[in-house]
Design goal:
Elements (H helix, E strand, L loop, with lengths): L2 H23 L5 H12 L1
Helix pairs in contact: 1-2
């Protein structure tokens, strides 16, 4: 795997995590749960 392929995979994973967070956070009313989701995405 070259550097460009690794970057592409990393970007795809980050986008998928962010997209999941945005879809779920819109449906969660509890601030603690929303904050936990945000922390998971940041990691």
């Amino acid at each position: 795997m070259n550097d460009l392929e690794a970057l592409e995979i990393g970007l795809e994973n980050e986008y998928a995590a962010y997209n999941f967070y945005m879809r779920v956070a819109d449906k969660v009313d509890d601030n603690k749960t929303r904050n936990l989701l945000h922390e998971l995405v940041v990691e």
